[in-house]
Design brief:
- It contains three helices and eight strands; from the N terminus they run H-H-H-E-E-E-E-E-E-E-E.
- It is an alpha+beta fold.
- It has two domains: 49 residues; 153 residues, Porin (Beta Barrel), CATH 2.40.160.20.
- An eight-stranded antiparallel β-barrel has the order 1-2-3-4-5-6-7-8.
- It is elongated, with a radius of gyration of 37 Å.
- 12% of the residues are buried.
Length: 213
């Protein structure tokens, strides 16, 4: 009798332990599965949530570009004007940028003698710009650009004394437009309506080549 009681107690103990272990394994698997599902839902939710840029369509409306030209030799010239623009709609673009120009001259033509003479002259030009462009149709555009430039101005024509001054510039522009993906290539002519003897540009009419991407 004692043997049967001991055997029954032993079987009950093993059975209870086995059930508890099996139940713990079941609970562990279930909890792990729930935890994995929760993590996956969190990841999918984060992936589906648009960034601030995409939510407001900023990344699709921003374009970058500008102008760049240079030449090196006896007389050297470097010009760069990076720009960033924002598309209000398919036809209207507004934006701003910065202009920097450096020039150095070691020879210049002397009209009084009819020959070239050696000189040592360096100048720089810099300042902000704001612009707007409107596409008339796919291959033509109108534009306006305001600049405020610091540059050399001849204060005394007799002694050729130079001073640095800030000068406003207002260009009206018309030109050819070649679409390039989300951007465009622009080839046109600009006219400075504020041109005078202190203008940083030699002529009120300026050819223009720019690119946006």
């Amino acid at each position: 009798m004692k043997k049967l009681l001991f055997l029954f107690t032993l079987l009950f103990a093993f059975g209870t332990t086995g059930f508890a272990q099996e139940n713990e394994r079941f609970k562990s698997k279930k909890d792990n599965k729930l935890e994995e599902d929760s993590k996956q839902r969190t990841i999918e939710s984060n992936n589906d949530r648009p960034s601030i840029r995409n939510r407001f369509g900023i990344s699709e409306r921003l374009v970058f570009g500008g102008n760049l030209s240079m030449s090196f030799g006896t007389n050297s010239f470097f010009y760069i004007a990076p720009s960033v623009g924002y598309k209000i709609n398919e036809n209207l673009l507004v934006g701003g940028g910065y202009i920097y120009q450096y020039a150095s001259f070691s020879r210049a033509y002397d009209a009084s003698t009819g020959s070239y003479s050696s000189i040592d002259y360096e100048s720089s030009l810099y300042g902000p710009k704001l612009f707007t462009y409107y596409s008339l149709f796919e291959t033509a555009y109108l534009g306006a650009q305001w600049e405020y430039l610091n540059h050399d101005v001849v204060e005394n024509i007799t002694t050729y004394e130079l001073v640095q001054e800030w000068t406003p510039v207002l260009f009206l522009e018309v030109g050819y437009l070649q679409p390039m993906g989300s951007g465009a290539l622009q080839i046109g002519f600009k006219y400075n309506v504020l041109h005078d003897e202190k203008s940083p540009y030699f002529s009120p009419f300026i050819p223009s080549i720019g690119i946006f991407f």
